[in-house]
């Protein structure tokens, strides 16, 4: 990730439309409600690091009951996520109010706004570039995912050069510390030239 994309402790890249966000949206469109895909119809969905909110909006279009969009920077939610939601549900302001909620702030501070075991599906894209955030990230997944059938889909690059994170490191951080959880790669994107991108599925065993 280029230095201009992140200002540690102030800005986490939310104004940029990251490619893994689009990967995750496409995955939902292809696999949602398939026998082995995430059950979105009637689901409560939480999107972490939402930025533009594309995967969360797709989840709503696919039938999610309620979608909570979270981003580190509240101004990203105001400038991008909320207008994008309204643009996709332009005919029904009441539906927007009833089906969408928005939360800004650090993952470590979200307990007051994200009830325990409240999400059937957690979505995240490009949120695992820094290993320093893994403890808070996994803690929030464990808190938010509804037991026993909640699922998280995390779209990211296999390795983030210069910062050390990536899908392998994140998967290991979960399975090494939490034997009651499993991590599986459910889709891979590779053109043989650029960084390999993957979608991880995280579940309770």
From TrEMBL:
Domain of life: Eukaryota
CDD domains for this protein: AdoMet_MTases (cd02440)
Presence of the UniProt keyword Translocase in the record: no
UniProt KW keywords: Cytoplasm, Methyltransferase, Nucleus, S-adenosyl-L-methionine, Transferase
Enzyme class, first EC level, given as a word: transferase
BP GO annotations: methylation
Principal cellular location given in the protein's record: cytoplasm
Coiled-coil regions, chain positions: none
GO molecular function: protein-L-histidine N-tele-methyltransferase activity
One GO cellular component, as annotated: cytoplasm
Similarity comment text for this entry: Belongs to the methyltransferase superfamily. METTL18 family.
PANTHER family: HEPATOCELLULAR CARCINOMA-ASSOCIATED ANTIGEN, HISTIDINE PROTEIN METHYLTRANSFERASE 1 HOMOLOG
Protein name, entry field: protein-histidine N-methyltransferase
């Amino acid at each position: 990730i280029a230095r201009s994309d992140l200002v540690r402790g102030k800005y986490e890249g939310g104004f940029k439309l990251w490619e893994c966000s689009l990967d995750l949206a496409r995955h939902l469109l292809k696999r949602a409600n398939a026998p082995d895909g995430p059950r979105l119809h009637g689901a409560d969905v939480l999107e972490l690091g939402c930025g533009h909110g594309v995967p969360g909006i797709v989840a709503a279009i696919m039938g999610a009951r309620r979608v909570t969009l979270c981003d580190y920077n509240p101004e990203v939610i105001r400038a991008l996520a909320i207008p994008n939601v309204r643009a996709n549900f332009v005919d029904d302001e009441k539906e927007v109010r009833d089906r969408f909620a928005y939360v800004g702030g650090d993952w470590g501070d979200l307990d007051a706004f994200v009830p325990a075991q409240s999400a059937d599906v957690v979505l995240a894209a490009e949120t695992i570039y820094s290993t320093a955030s893994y403890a808070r990230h996994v803690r929030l997944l464990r808190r938010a995912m509804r037991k026993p059938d909640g699922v998280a889909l995390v779209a990211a690059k296999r390795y983030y050069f210069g910062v050390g994170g990536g899908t392998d490191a994140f998967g290991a951080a979960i399975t090494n510390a939490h034997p009651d959880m499993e991590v599986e790669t459910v889709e891979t994107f590779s053109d043989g030239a650029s960084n390999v991108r993957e979608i991880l599925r995280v579940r309770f065993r």
